[in-house]
Design goal:
The chain has helices at 3-6, 39-53, 130-134, 137-151, 156-162, 219-242; strands spanning 11-12, 57-58, 63-64, 83-88, 93-98, 116-122, 165-170, 185-190, 200-204, 207-216. The chain has one domain. 27% of the residues lie in helices and 20% in strands. A hairpin with a 4-residue loop joins strand 4 and strand 5 (93-98).
Length: 257
Amino acid sequence: MSWKKKLLSKISDGGDMEETTLPDHRSKVATETVAVDDPRYQQFFEARERHWRSIGTLDEAVIAYIISPEFLGKPAWPTTRQAYRVIRTAHSFIIASDGLTDLFVDTNSEKPGFGTEVYIEVPDLAHADFDQIKRHWAFSLIPDFAAYVAHAGGIETQVERLGLLSIEFPEPEGVPDTWLTERKSLGALINVTIPDRPMDVDLGSGAKALMIPLTILTATETKFVLENGANGRVELARRLTDAGVGIRSDLSRESLV
């Protein structure tokens, strides 16, 4: 099944967004293009690392693919490097994309990729090894979200304009059926904010990256968001914060609707 069919191409800003095409950043070749050895790649990488180390313990190992998903028909990132990092806090672990905010290689674009990195935080497996992590449902979900961001050409504009967004993932691996809608999809909020979590990173060289969390919703919460639009997203984010859930995706919690 193609990634397009696997990922529901709906992201809500009060209505459904039409499926968009990845902008061809790589076709904009000028006399001075961004080379693979541009020092800003390392600069941006280190800035993202500092951000995650301010939140928890960053695993030294970078999770990457032997063959880039781009060569297997999935959306292109700014370079062929599509990677993820694991960050461990005292009571949770985070899986985050690493590379959506790289410079677009072989172009004259000064923009830090799609302007956002995405992540999911779950309260279990804080001390899990890689084999346990790669079998976890969150490890399957966050690459799908990253693929959506890349395919859409980024969601930075929508996030900055609307704050909260919502999305649905069809038939996610490892998620109990009790969390799925009648359509067998899993709903989620994009960009719930909490007071103690920085939402952007200064990459240097005049560039910044938004760090966007994904928070899964129960079936009834997803229905609530669909029925109430922007107001429903704001209300549900408030309930998540008041309940102490915040941005975490916890399959053991009760529905707040």
